[in-house]
Amino acid sequence: MGLKILFFLFVTGFIAYYIYTPLPDAMEQKLKVMMIDAVTRTLYNVVGFVELLGLKPYIHALMLFSRGEDVAAVSDENVTVTDTVFNGIPVRVFIPTKQNKDRRRGLLYFHGGGWCTGSAGMNTYDLLARMTANAIDAVVVSVSYRLAPEYHFPTQFEDVYTVTKYFLQDHVLSEYFVDRDRIGVSGDSAGGNLAAAVVLQVQEDKDIDIQLKVQALIYPALQAVDFDTPSYQQNKHMPLLSRSLMVRFWSEYFTNDTALYKSMMSNRFIPLASRHTFAFVNWEKYLPEKFRKGHIYSGPQYGNADLLNKYPGILDSRACPLLAEEIKLKTLPKTYIITCEYDVLRDDGIMYVSRVKEAGIHVTHYHCETCFHGILMFEPWPFYLEAAHKVLINYINWLDANL
Which position among 126, 188, 226, 343 bears the catalytic label? Predict the structure, then answer.
C-alpha cells in the first residue's frame, strides 16, 4: 500500500511539474492556459522525437498532426459549405442560407500555420469562416494554399493571389451574388502575412478593376529582418508559438536549407549592403514607448550576403509586407489589425499600424492585453477561453461595421 501511495504521489507530482508553466499576471484563466501549453508542448516534443529518430522531418511530422484536425465540408441551417476549386487552387466556400435581395459582402480568408501547416478544412478555420459568414451575411472564401516544405515562397503567395484574382471577376461575383464594392481580405498569423501582401499587390494590378474595401489582419507575421524586437525577446517561450518555432517557420517558407534557420536564430543574416531595409522595421521609431518594455534599440547586426543572394525573397514585400515603401502603403484600404501582448509577432503588427497610420490610412488597432498567439483557436470547446471570444466578437463587429 505504501509503495502505491508513493507511486501515486510521484506520478501526480510529475504531471503537476510538467503542466505548470509560469505565466504573466495579466493572463486570464491561467490553469486552462497551462493545460493548453502542456498539450502543445507535448505535441512539439513528440514531433521533435520523430525527427530525432529519423522517421520524418520536424515540419512534415507537424503537418501530419494538423491534418488530423481537418473536417468535411458540411452545411448547416445557417450556412451552405462547399469544397471547390478556383483556377486550380482548392477553396472552401461558405454562403449564408438566408434569402437576401441585395448582393452580399465577400471575404477572402487565408489560414495561418507558418506557411507549413493548416488548411481551409481545419476545424478551427471551418468554424471561424462559418461564424463570420452567418454573422455578417457574407460569402467567405477560405483558401487551401500549398505548403512548405514541399513548396516555398512565392508559391503560397501566388496561390492566394490566384484565388483573389479569380474571385474579383464580375462573372464570378455574380455567380455568388457578391457586391463588387464590398469585398475584403483577412487572415491570421502567416495568413495575415499573405492577406497584407495580396492587398498590396491588388492595388498595383492593372488587370483588376475592383478595389478591396478592407483588410483585417489577425496577429500577422510581417517581417523576417529582425528577430530581436522587444516582443521576440519578451515572448520567446510563450504558449503555442516560441521564437525558435516562428523563426523555423520563416526559414522553411524560403528554403529547406538549415543554414538559413541558424543565421535567422542568431539575427545576423542581412548584409550591410541591404541596411536600408532596417529603416522599415526600426522599432525605436515605430513602437510606442509602452511596447518597448525597457529594451534599448542598438541598431542592426549585419551578416554575410551569401544567404540573401540565395534567397532574395527575404527582402521581397510580398513575403514581408512591413518592407513595403510608403508610396505603396498610401494605396491601402481601411485596415484592422489584432495584436496580442504575449506574442512574438506583437511588434510586427504594431509597427505596421504605425506605418499605415503614417501613410494616412484609416487603421483600427485592437490589442489584447491578456492574449497569446493563436488565441482565436481557443474560442471553440473544449479549450474555450473568454479572451478568445472577446477577440472574435471584436473582429466580427468590425467587419460588420466596415465591410
Answer: 343
Q: Count Cα neighbours of 401 within 13 Å in the Cβ-side half-sphere.
A: 10
Length of the chain: 403
The pLDDT of residue 126 is above 70: yes
* Residue 111 a catalytic site member: no
pLDDT, one tens digit per residue, over 287-331 is: 999 999 889 888 788 888 899 999 999 999 999 999 999 999 999
Dig out the grid coordinates for 342 from the structure.
504575449
Determine whether 343 is an active site residue.
Answer: yes
What is the strand order of the sheet 79-86 is part of? 79-86, 89-96, 138-143, 104-110, 178-188, 214-218, 334-342, 363-372
Q: How far apart are CA 274 and CA 11, in angstroms?
A: 54
> Is the overall model pTM greater than 0.85, yes or no?
yes
Q: Which of 386, 370, 336, 381 is nearest to 356 (CA)?
A: 336
Pairing of strands 178-188, 363-372: unpaired
37-46 per-residue burial string, b: 16 or more CB within 10 A, e: under 16 = bbebbeebee
Identify whether 373 is a catalytic site residue. Answer: yes
Average pLDDT over every residue of 211-216: 97
Catalytic residue (one of 66, 144, 189, 251): 189
